Batch of 2 targets.
Target 1
Amino acid sequence: MYCCRAHPSLGRELVAAKVYRPLETRSFKRDGVYQQGRDRGARPDARVLRALGKKTQHGRAHKFSAWIGHEMRTLEKLHAAGCDVPCPIERVGPVILMEYVGDAEHPAPVLVGVPLSTDEATRVYQRILENVDLFLAQHRVHADLSPYNMLFWNGAVTIIDFPQAVDPRYNNDALELLVRDLANTNPFFAALGVDVVAPRERAMSLWRRHVDAEG
Ligand SMILES: Nc1ncnc2c1ncn2[C@@H]1O[C@H](COP(=O)(O)OP(=O)(O)O)[C@@H](O)[C@H]1O
Ligand SMILES: [Mg+2]
């Protein structure tokens, strides 16, 4: 991740550039789970499918690119829906340019380690739950949610890091990933004295409202 001085045409002084490392070095965490159903709606290209199956260079390059494109589209969708995510600016090859959170001296810290009072932590936690709800309304489960993927700046939280996000309509593991997202978010807040939700119950209730209701 790089903080860059922006071209005046972008209308902001600083932008964040998330540079994806080539496939050889980036470990695609349990890629299969997250890819499931990803290409729904897109016409599968037989040549690409064969290449993916064979783990050829062409197949790997296609996967790498799909992963980045998916994060860009997810950021666009969620930002447009009013979620607390960085405003995406542009994707250029392996780079996503997005709103930079922080100032010229300091990037915003990740939430882990930020000393919050119980009241402030409660407010931030509620806002995160609202975001999880908004994500589902946009057919997304973050799938790597934790205080390590939340930035804290000027009293507000920004949720980042979406390449592995899944669409609950098409991904069989989405409910479990949603439970895990809530479970991974809770301990940080519980330690600050926040009254946290039961992950499975909250996930089921969100599921009934957003996924079953649309079924
Ligand atoms: N929009 C942003 N503004 C400022 N810092 C950011 C921004 N996005 C990410 N970062 C920083 O870069 C780190 C890595 O970004 P992230 O999207 O979580 O990728 P990954 O965890 O896959 O490396 C974050 O932990 C955070 O410190
Ligand atoms: Mg991250």
Target 2
Amino acid sequence: MATKPYKQLGCLDVQPAGGCGFQVRAETEAELMQLVATHAKQCHKLESIPQEMAAQVKAAIKTVTVTV
Ligand SMILES: [Zn+2]
């Protein structure tokens, strides 16, 4: 059994009042930001993530250990 660190972020971590239960996990921060951007576009009608929000997203990213 091996463990692997993953980056994890929930929509609620960035927008607690948003009521969106979306959660994402990725191996790298870059990959995670990409998934967040796709979600923001599809679910929140954000064509691109404003710089201010990107900073909030990065601050809210947690590293979790996943057993693979
Ligand atoms: Zn969301």
